[in-house]
Amino acid sequence: MNHANNILSAFLEKRKRNHFLFYLVPFVALSIPIVYILLTGGIRFDEEYYSMLYLLNYDHGFLARGLVGEVLTHLAGVVTPEVQRTTILVFTGLWVIGASLCIGRALCKCDTETDRFSLTAFLLLFLCLMSFTTGTCYYDDKLDKFIWALTFFSVFSAGNRILRCIFVPVLSFTAMLSNPIFFFTSMPLIAIIMFDKFQKQHYSPVEGITTIGTFTLCGLLGVYASYAQAHLGFSSPDEFLDFYFANSAVPLKPEVRENFKVWIIEYFADSPADLLRNLYNINGVQWEGRTTTISTTLFVAVPILTVFIWFWSHTVKNETNKFRKFIFALCPLSLLLLVPTVLLSWEAEKYYGSAILVHLSLLIYFIGEKDPAVLATLDKIKNIVREKPILLPAFFGCYAAIFMVI
Length: 406
Prior knowledge:
The chain is an all-alpha fold. α4 runs antiparallel to α5. The longest helix has 29 residues. The chain is globular. The mean pLDDT is 82.
């Protein structure tokens, strides 16, 4: 172990003046799967639910998740499978660039201290190998990869005072227009980092207005999107589908049309109570995947997210500054945003993975910032592991569960 640390120390000492490799290595590593996929069959194209996300636009009024379809229908007119595959590939490339920038910066901040660098590299490896991350960003054609690309660019921009006052609001609004679920998934990551910068900039009014204003306006946009989509004026699900799939080169199969009528029930609910009843019937009674969701919740999400809650609560105790206590208290409180996403969706596993990704990213961020309260909590964990070595294999067991299930 000492020999390995000596080699790592020598490497860090040699490279501490040249950070280019810290950005290049993750970029190459994250790009290899893209090359492999392209050589073995290309990006997957889903002819069912997610294909609709590339067709929705604003021709019939303001519709949540309509930005991508609006751009595609203006640029390409008819959305063919080739157009969709190209768009998905662009989103994947943006994700790789954004993730590489954030990973590179995290490694650069720790490149002079072996222990922190080793821990950061391990957490980043853990994060990148999660099947949720690789599945979403390489194989799937969901909009999530674009949302996370915008998130990573926002996190990277937050490291520069000028960039975070310009790009973070713009990127956040772009993400909200692409999919309002951004507010519940990765917006907490951006908000907490922005609050941290606000405090470290001696409570700059510009930082405060940018942070609170961006978070508030994104929330209001989400509320308005929910209101607007209930007033689009379609008389029936069939009219809704006919209108949007008129821009698709792929015919809507009869059996898929029937599934779509269920999936777009939110646009035709008479009241919030009616919507909740329908969603409960679809996601709780009729849904065949509920067993997987229950097992994932009990044996993967609850244990791992409980560890994060324990970690942030102890960090709050280790912190003496009241505003920083508030910042760290936001970390476990952000998990409350999981509730609406899980209750209103049949993709609970995806949102569990998203929450884990957010909290790992926050942990890596605060390690890079050398935050005393976070480092003190990590020291406490080291002592606990020394006293109870069984915890380490238990951790790897949870990792294996995430890799196989999420």
